[in-house]
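In the current project phase, our protein records have gained a structure token line. A sample record follows, to show the layout:
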Amino acid sequence: MTNNDIFKKLRVALQLRDDQIVEILELVDFRVSKGELGNIFRKEDHPNYVECGDQLLRNFLNGLVIHLRGTKENPKNPMDVIKSHKNDASTEKREIKPKTESFKKPTTTFKPKPKKKPLPKKEPIVEKVRFKNGKNKSKD
């Protein structure tokens, strides 16, 4: 199991977004951009795939401890922090839904299309032709 696999599994298990991971890494003064994180979470056969180094994973785990437990001066309950991640994810899903209340129908009047006059019947230009090509010959 590679460092990338461990990082991905922690991200899914704790329901962390990229911006939250960046904040966790900043707790231990380790700077990483969202783009670099995206490259770490890609599949191995992708051209932009980057291996997660030991230093990045170590700093993430140290930052995660501070994020979940807090500091000695300001301790936190880890389960409360994890629940807040779930609440953040559920509120984001609600914001994505379109609001149908603000939709109003346009107030235009309906005007029916005028009826077209029927076209006069055209007489055929070519008369029906009967071909005698040898089929169904009558015996005289």
